[in-house]
């Protein structure tokens, strides 16, 4: 019994136990503490706030350490939020874990103009024609010409009028002109 008591008095052990209170490392708990008392209308908002809170340092390192503490808690919504925030290394890491990809990751990266994330998701992850259409429409409306050019050049279906209208509605003349120059109306129209 005395040996056990002596072991429990060792400073490194006490520090390790205290640091891991609440199941999180102290620095992670500090970053995430403000989120505990927040209410979010949608889970997506909470996930985005989680990643933004961790972005105060090296986001990927914090996400990896968070997984040590809370394995199995990350979902496709975390990929969506990382894509929207442009956290490329986190997107790669989460995709490598085999998390399922939702329809929204590609459009969320496109609407914010994160070309590197759009390219990665397009080339390395299964995608659907719907997600590509939605991404093109969002990027056009937001005026991200480089993203529009990439998605147009790597499309699997013909260009529709929707991204042209989206660009026009967003007041993005350069994107609208780029798309108009490439639009071919379907026969009979």
TrEMBL record:
PANTHER family in the cross-refs: ANKYRIN REPEAT-CONTAINING PROTEIN
Native source species: Aphanomyces stellatus
Taxonomy of the source species: Eukaryota, Sar, Stramenopiles, Oomycota, Saprolegniomycetes
Protein name, per record: Aste57867_9646 protein
InterPro entries per record: Ankyrin_rpt, Ankyrin_rpt-contain_sf, SecEffector_AnkRepeat
């Amino acid at each position: 019994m005395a040996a056990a008591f002596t072991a429990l008095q060792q400073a490194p052990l006490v520090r390790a136990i205290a640091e891991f209170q609440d199941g999180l490392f102290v620095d992670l708990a500090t970053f995430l503490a403000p989120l505990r008392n927040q209410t979010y209308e949608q889970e997506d908002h909470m996930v985005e706030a989680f990643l933004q809170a961790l972005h105060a340092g090296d986001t990927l390192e914090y996400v990896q350490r968070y997984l040590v503490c809370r394995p199995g808690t990350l979902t496709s919504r975390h990929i969506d939020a990382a894509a929207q925030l442009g956290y490329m290394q986190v997107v790669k890491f989460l995709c490598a874990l085999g998390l399922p990809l939702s329809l929204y990751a590609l459009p969320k990266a496109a609407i914010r103009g994160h070309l590197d994330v759009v390219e990665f998701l397009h080339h390395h992850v299964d995608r659907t024609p719907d997600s590509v259409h939605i991404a093109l429409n969002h990027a056009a409306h937001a005026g991200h010409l480089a993203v529009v050019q990439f998605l147009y050049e790597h499309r699997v279906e013909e260009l529709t009028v929707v991204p042209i209208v989206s660009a026009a509605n967003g007041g993005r003349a350069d994107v609208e002109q780029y798309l108009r120059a490439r639009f071919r109306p379907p026969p009979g129209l």
